């Protein structure tokens, strides 16, 4: 089947967009991000969707956005950090070359800080990170064909590690 050359999953702030754009440039394909698809389709920011309609509504939009992008896109695709919470999304991902980017909790707190644009981290980010990672780690492991640690690596090094792990050649 056709579909994305690489699907990037992993927690918020791990660098899916930065690394995804690098991978797209190196492979000569385009980059797509399901968070950006949702913002474009809804005409509003994700934090506003969370506040106004709640997380459940956002997850329904996300599930549909991921399913559409997996069919339509043949470049590099990055998913929001919580896309793997949905079981049917995880089942769809089994068919695709999924790379999970990971970082440790201290690195996560440092990279994302108190980020208003990330509604799940608005209060007590360290505790929330720990809980998020504990609950999501098995889900990332379930969908990932390869897991790439990003601690102490530049975005270029992470992109190279993804290419190596998935045995993809540059254009
Ligand atoms: C979320 C991650 C965000 C965005 C939303 C929820 C999550 O995407 O989808 O704020 O549940 O981890 P990024 O991982 O692109 O920041």
Notes on the protein architecture:
The protein has a single domain, classed as P-loop containing nucleotide triphosphate hydrolases (Rossmann fold), CATH 3.40.50.300. 54% of the residues lie in helices and 11% in strands. Helix 1 (16-27) packs across helix 8. The chain is of the alpha/beta class and 171 residues long. Strands 2-3-1-4-5 form a five-stranded parallel sheet, with helices on both faces. The mean pLDDT is 92. The protein is globular, with a radius of gyration of 15 Å. It binds shikimate-3-phosphate. Shikimate-3-phosphate is lined by residues 12, 16, 35, 46, 80-82, 118-120.
Index terms:
single chain, Rossmann fold, 5 strands, 54% helix, Shikimate/glucono_kinase
Question: Major β-sheet, in short?
Answer: 5 strands, parallel
Structural class: alpha/beta
What is the fourth-level CATH superfamily?
P-loop containing nucleotide triphosphate hydrolases
CATH architecture: 3-Layer(aba) Sandwich
- Our estimate of the beta-strand percent is 5-15%
Q: What bound compounds does this protein have?
A: shikimate-3-phosphate
Number of domains as seen in the coordinates: 1
The CATH C-level class name? Alpha Beta
Termini Cα gap = 20 Å
- What would the principal axes of the Cα set say about the shape? globular
Q: What is Rg?
A: 15 Å
SS field, number of helical segments: 8
Q: Give me the CATH fold name.
A: Rossmann fold
Mean pLDDT: 92
Low-confidence parts: none
| Helix percentage | 40-55%
Count of individual beta strands: 5
Q: Could you state the order of secondary-structure elements as H and E?
A: EHEHHHEHEHHEH
Strand order of the largest sheet: 2-3-1-4-5
Catalytic activity: shikimate + ATP = 3-phosphoshikimate + ADP + H(+)
InterPro entries: P-loop_NTPase, Shikimate/glucono_kinase, Shikimate_kinase/TSH1, Shikimate_kinase_CS
Organism: Streptomyces venezuelae
Protein name: Shikimate kinase
């Amino acid at each position: 089947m056709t579909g994305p050359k690489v699907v990037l999953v992993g927690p918020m702030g791990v660098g899916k967009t930065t690394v995804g754009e690098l991978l797209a440039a190196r492979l000569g394909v385009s980059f797509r991000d399901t968070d950006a698809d949702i913002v474009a389709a809804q005409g509003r920011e994700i934090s506003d969707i969370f506040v106004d309609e709640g997380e459940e509504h956002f997850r329904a939009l996300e599930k549909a956005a991921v399913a559409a992008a997996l069919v339509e896109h043949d470049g590099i695709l990055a998913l929001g950090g919580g896309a793997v919470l949905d079981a049917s999304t995880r089942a769809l991902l089994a068919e695709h070359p999924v790379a999970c980017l990971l970082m440790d909790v201290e690195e996560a707190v440092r990279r994302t800080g108190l980020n208003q644009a990330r509604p799940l981290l608005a209060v007590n980010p360290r505790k929330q990170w720990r809980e998020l990672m504990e609950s999501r780690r098995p889900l990332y492991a379930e969908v990932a064909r390869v897991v790439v640690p990003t601690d102490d690596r530049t975005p270029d090094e992470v992109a190279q590690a993804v290419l190596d792990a998935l045995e993809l050649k540059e254009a």
